[in-house]
Amino acid sequence: MSLSIDHLCVAYGARQILHGVTLPALPAGSLVALVGPNGAGKSTLLRALAGLERMQGTLRLDGQDVTRLGFAERARRLAYMPQQLPPGLALGVLESIVAALRVGGSDDLLSHAFEALRQLGIEGLAERSLDSLSGGQRQLVALAQLLARNPQVLLLDEPTSALDLHYQLRVMGAVRERVVAHRLLAVAVLHDINLAASQADCLVVLREGRVVACGAPADVLKPAMLAEVYGVEARVEQCSQGRLQVLVDRALA
Amino acid sequence: MTALAQDGAALAAWHYRRLLWRRGLLVAGLALLLLVTVLGDLASGASGMSLGRLLQGIFEPTTLSATERVIIWNVRLPYALMAVLVGAALSLAGAEMQAILDNPLASPFTLGVSSSAALGASLAIAYPLGVAWLAPSAQVTVMAFAFACLSVVLLQMMSRLRGAGVQSLVLFGIALVFSCNALVSLLQLLATEDVLQQLVFWTLGSLARADWHKLGLLALVLAVLLPFSLRAAPAMTLLRMGEDRARSFGVDTRRLRLASLLRISLLSATAVAFVGTIGFVGLVGPHIARLLVGEDQRFLFPASALVGALMLSLSSLASKLLLPGVIVPVGIVTALVGVPVFVVLVFRRGRSL
Description:
The complex is a heterodimer.
Chain A: E1 2-12, E2 15-27, E3 30-35, H1 42-49, E4 56-61, E5 64-65, H2 71-77, E6 78-81, H3 93-104, H4 109-119, H5 135-147, E7 153-157, H6 165-182, E8 185-189, H7 193-199, E9 202-207, E10 210-215, H8 217-220, H9 223-230, E11 232-238, E12 244-251
Parallel strand pairs in A: 3-8, 3-9, 6-7, 7-8
Antiparallel strand pairs in A: 1-2, 1-4, 4-5, 9-10, 11-12
Helix pairs in contact in A: 3-4, 3-5, 4-5, 5-6
Chain B: H1 3-43, H2 51-59, H3 66-101, H4 113-126, H5 136-160, H6 166-190, H7 193-204, H8 212-240, H9 243-248, H10 253-275, H11 281-293, H12 297-321, H13 330-352
InterPro entries (chain B): ABC_BtuC-like (IPR037294), ABC_transptr_permease_BtuC (IPR000522)
Keywords (chain B): Cell membrane, Membrane, Transmembrane, Transmembrane helix, Transport
Transmembrane segments (chain B): 25-51, 71-93, 105-127, 133-157, 169-191, 215-239, 260-284, 326-347
């Protein structure tokens, strides 16, 4: 299973957001991070993949044209997670996952929903209300909503924004684990470039609606690229455990 | 799966089913409470006819005098049932509006549907159409209905405009309220003395216009639309978790919205056309229901309808008891009772956020 993106364009009226994004086939079992400065079109690309934006170009999953899939079928295979669950919802955790499954028309909703919670290690939250959870717990619940539907592709829009360090790693760890264990493809918009470097198999760097670089973090993260794309003077160093670290020294004028 | 995990799953399932049962019981309890209120509403009135006599009259009409028959069949029953149906229709419309617009302030009243109906009715009162085959009172109802539908069509067109978010739709609704109210005031300014009286009375909202034809029509609208609301409820629950989330879960939110707006327009236009502007039921009813049964729209929709019916039934009862010998228009009562409830709700919400 792989996802290939060819000449993907999105425009809002006369304003072109994505200028023909083309990427090498993204294979199952990998976590791809979309990075880049604000307004680069990361979220728009993700939304286009999820079918939430009108787009041109081709999008193939296993050689099959995704844009020709029906609404429900596409949603079943490519699952999208927006930034945060809205506050003030009088819903229980388990209930919210059952509600998500009910629309998909699967059977045995309760056990599927509970299993999704269990796999993320948050089955203890099942009877809590969404409103009583912390931001990190809510994000894990949102992830459980996604995983319960057994999709092939996970599309995650800033899954770790507004989360503390513990939950940043827990959410990304849960995604990684599922990606490897179930041979899924995860595409995530990540703001934190160090988190992206440590978690992703492949970085896609976007700027002004175009792909600037694409490849393994070690190949992509170079001071020249960071200067060009982010306008910062930065060093890329290896920490004592061999992980890449981007250290930003100053903003370039 | 280990035995422990299986226990956990069974326990969670048990809790979940108990939650559903509790909600079902709450809805049934509301229905029961409504029945009691309706009986109370039936039993009160200027004529002082007791509930026992009234029930006897309903089941054995021959035992009644002609006056008593008129009181039961032309006054007490239609008023009481109209309160139930109008309350249910407005509150259900409000619940759907709040779901599709993702706005706690949405209701037929706050988004201008009621005001538009009032404008239509006022036009018909001030400038009768001069159509011989339609009685003047029917003209008022038809015009109110047409204007209410027109306002929902406008709201729909706004919602389909590119780039028009939910916020702009709500602002547009508020603008609609102000324009319609201004035009109604203009009509009142230009009207003669006795037309003015009719205009004011119409805008107050009163159950005194109830009759069996209107009751039948409103009951029909509710009976036809409620199943569709319930069928849309699971998708609506997802919509409450965010538009993008719902769409990415395979919900066609555009179609969902359009169908819902159609239901809202029929429900609120019919209700408003028959009884005038009755505020706050459509706004507060769904909020109270949400406090009781939560956000699962499968329970929220019926609970909202029941709470709305209960509110208006209680208001109808209060409207007879407030001033001895005078039936205060029920629209005034709902506003008086609704505002404090609303303020309490707003502050509760503010605390929990």
